[in-house]
Design brief:
Helices cover 26% and strands 28% of the residues. With 599 residues, the chain is of the alpha+beta class. The protein folds into 3 domains: 212 residues, 2-Layer Sandwich (BirA Bifunctional Protein, domain 2), CATH 3.30.930; 158 residues, YbaK/aminoacyl-tRNA synthetase-associated domain (YbaK protein); 97 residues, Anticodon-binding domain (Rossmann fold, 3-Layer(aba) Sandwich). A hairpin with a 6-residue loop joins β11 and β12. It is globular, with a radius of gyration of 29 Å. Bound molecules: adenosine-5'-triphosphate and magnesium ion (MG). Adenosine-5'-triphosphate (ATP) binds next to β8, β21, β24 and α12.
Length: 599
Amino acid sequence: MRLSQMLLVTLREDPAEAEIKSHQLLLRAGYIRRIGSGVYAYLPLMWRVLQKVSQIVREEMNATGAQECLLPQIQPAELWQESGRWETYTKAEGIMFSLVDRQERELGLGPTHEEVITAIAKDMIKSYRQLPTHLYQIQTKFRDEIRPRFGLMRGREFIMKDGYSFHTNLESLKETYQDMDQAYRNILNRCGLSFRAVEADSGAIGGSGSQEFMILADAGEDDIVYTDDGKYAANVEKAVSLPADVVSSPFNSYEKKATPNTETIAKITKFLECSATNIVKNVLYQAIYDSGKTVLILVHIRGDQDVNEVKLQNELVKLAPHYQAKTILSLTIPDPHVQQKWATKPLPLGYISPNLSDDYIAKSEQVEGTFLRMADKTVVELENFVTGSDESGYHVIGANWGNEFTLPELIVDIRKAQVGDRAIHDPHQILQTARGIEVGHIFQLGTKYSEAMRATYTAEDGTEKPFVMGCYGIGVSRLAQAAVEQSYDKDGIIWSNAIAPYHVMVIIPNITDETQVKVAEKLYQELNQAGVEAVLDDRDERAGVKFKDADLIGIPYRIVTGRSLKEGKVELVTRATKESQDIAIEEVVQNLSKKLKNN
Ligand code: ATP
Ligand code: MG
C-alpha cells in the first residue's frame, strides 16, 4: 500500500472527545472515526489490525478443535422469550437493541448468542454421540451500553469472538474450559499483551466457574485484587479475603448516647473514640424484582467494611422465587426522593438500627411490607457494638445480638474485599490491587439455557438430558485498543509485530530525489514479495511530517532512503526503541525477515 493512495488523515492535536490515551492515539493516527455514540468506523489501518487479531484468535480456536460458523445478528424475540431474557435485555437492563419489522414481529440485534446457538443445538444435536461440540464465530455485536466510552473499549457496536460448547457432563465441559483458558492465554501472549487471568463473578447463574482475562492498564474499568505469590487473583466483584481483626470494644454496658452530627462512620468513630470495627453499619437498599415487587433490604455490615453490590445482587436473585420473580431489575440505595414512594415517615438516615421498624414501609401491592434483613458475616461475632438508635442524633453503645438486637437468619458474605486484606489461602499474603481491561471471559454455563429452552439430547441410557454448556467470549476490537493502551510513548503508538497493520514503513524523505524514490520503490516491492508487509510513504510531504506520522502510526520498523544512500545504505529504525542503524540496501529484506521470524 502507498500512503499517497490511502485514506489517511492524521491529527496533530488530541481530540477533545477522547479521554484515554489509546482512544486519542487511534483517532489521531487515523485508525478510527466516530460516527455516533459508541459507533466507530474502522479505517483501513484499523481493519488490518482487527483482521490480524481475528486471525490469531481463529488459529488458536481452530487448534482446540472448535469450528467456526457465523450466526445471524437479527434474532427473533421468541428465542429470548424462551430463555426468559427478552424482558431483562430489552427493558430492565435495556442492553439489547430491539425493533419491530413490517410484519409486526419483534426482533433483537444480537448482543450475544446463547439463545441462537441453543436453538441450533436443540434442532441438530439428537444424540450423545454428537457430543461434545464447540462452535464459534467472529462477528459484530450490538449492545446499547448506557455509557459508551473510551472508543472501541466500550462501543455499542463491536467485534467479538464468541464460542459455545455442548457436553454430556461437567467433566467434559471442564476439559473444554481448560482448553479455552489455554487458548486465551496463547492469544494474549501472541498479541504481546501483559495480562492476568482472574476469578470472575458468575452472577446468578451460579455454575462452577468463570474466569476473566484482564489486560493490565491504569485506564481499565475493572478492579483486580491479587497476591504476590501468584496463587490468587480475582475481579473485586468476586474477590474474597479475611477482614481485618476486630479491635476489642471499649464499651461494656449498653447505653443510648447523644451523638450529634455523626451520620458517617468517620464521624462516629471520632466522636466515640472507637474503632470502625466496633460498629454495626446498617445500609438500606431497594430492589425491584421482575414480578414488579419492590423489596427494601436492610444490610448489617461491620463499620470498616463496604457492601459488594454484585454479591448482594446475587443473594437477592437467589431469593427471587420468594417474590414470584426470576431476577431483579434494579438494585439501588434509595435516595430521599425515592423513599417518599414507600416511606410512611422520614427515615433516621445515618442513625438506622438493625431493629428499624417495618412501620416505616407503607405496604402495598407493589411494595413488600417488611424489610428483608441480612447480616454480613463480619457482624455476627461482634460484641458490645455501636449502632444506630433509629433516632437522629443518637447511637447506642455496648449493644449485643440476642440482647438489644436480633441477628437476622439470613447471614451472607456480601463484603467487598479490600486492598491490604489478608488472603484466604495464606493469611501472610496481602491483597494488592491493579486496574484491568476485561478482554475475555470464559464461563461454565451448565444447563441454564438448555433447561430454559428445553434443549435436550438422548443420553447413552436412552433418557433425554439437557445439554451441559460453556461459553467463551473475547473482545477483538477491545483487545486491539487495549494493546495500544499498554504500548505507546509520547510520540504515538507502538504496535507489536503480531498485530501491527504493517511490519515496515518505507519512507522517501524527498520524493523529488530520484535515487531515493528508486531505492524505496524497489525495497517496497521486494519486502512485500518476501512476505514482509510494507507500506510506502510516497506522499508529497516534508520529511519531518512523514517521520512524525510514522511515529504516531506506530509500525514496528521503518526504512528511510535518505543520506546514507551514498554508501549504498538505508536507515533502519525500530519504533519501540527508536534505535537507528544504517544497513546495506541488499540486506534489508533478509534483515527484516529475520527480525520478524524471531518474534
Ligand atoms: P463489560 O463488563 O466490560 O461490559 P461484559 O461482561 O458485558 O463486559 P461479555 O458479555 O463477557 O462482556 O463479553 C465478552 C467480551 O466482549 C468482553 O470480555 C469484552 O472484551 C467484549 N465486550 C463486551 N462489551 C463490549 C463493548 N461494549 N465494547 C467492546 N467490547 C466489549
Ligand atoms: Mg457489558
